[in-house]
Every structure is written in structure tokens, then in C-alpha cells.
Design goal:
single chain; 109 residues; 3 helices; 6 strands; 25% helix; 43% strand
Length: 109
């Protein structure tokens, strides 16, 4: 799977509740962090959150861009624009023998 497909799958999991590829997306040492309130979650907690929201669709416009890709490392930015605020996820992908794995930091600029 190409890095842009992985990022698209992540954005789908977050914005439209599509969790079909979750087990392939998150590294065992996955760390989610929200820099605005210092919330943190590991793989287990984050997947539990996504499963609890399966099928829920955010009312936002989402987009992503690859900021840098060099060999087996990719850094991307996903933006979710809601009516009253914007959420930005900075996504780091590392390609290993089992495919790309995701790490995320969220901010609300």
C-alpha cells in the first residue's frame, strides 16, 4: 500500500468512522497525542475510541497533504475543517516489514 492510501485510510477512520483497516494502520507502539490538552492514547485505547465511533461521520471538510517522504519515512498533515474550528493531525508513517505504521499528533490551531 502506498503512503497516500494509508493516510487516506486514517482520515476515513477519523472522519467517517471507517475502521476496516485499523489493525494495519497503527504500530504496536502507536502514540496519539493532543497537544492542546495533553491527552494521550496508545494503540489499544485509540482503536477502542475509533470502534466506539464506527460509522459516525464528522460534519467537516477533510484533506491531507504529504509534507515529506524519504525512503521508509513519511510525514503528512491532515486537516479537518469544521464550522467553528479546525483540527490538524500531523501523521508520521514508518514503513516496516509489515507495511506502513502510523503515529499521530493533533492540534487545534
Amino acid at each position: 500500500m502506498e503512503s497516500d492510501m494509508v493516510i487516506g485510510s486514517y482520515v476515513d477512520a477519523v472522519t467517517v468512522g471507517n475502521i476496516d483497516l485499523n489493525k494495519f494502520l497503527f504500530a504496536d507502539d502507536f502514540q496519539y497525542s493532543n497537544v492542546n490538552n495533553n491527552d494521550r492514547a496508545g494503540k489499544k485505547e485509540y482503536i477502542k475510541y475509533l470502534k466506539a465511533n464506527k460509522g459516525n461521520k464528522y460534519d467537516c471538510k477533510s484533506s491531507y497533504e504529504i509534507l515529506s517522504q524519504d525512503g521508509k519515512v513519511c510525514v503528512a498533515k491532515a486537516t479537518m475543517a469544521f464550522d467553528t474550528f479546525t483540527r490538524v493531525d500531523y501523521i508520521t508513517l514508518n514503513q516496516g516489514k509489515d507495511g506502513w505504521k502510523v503515529k499521530v499528533e493533533t492540534t487545534y490551531p
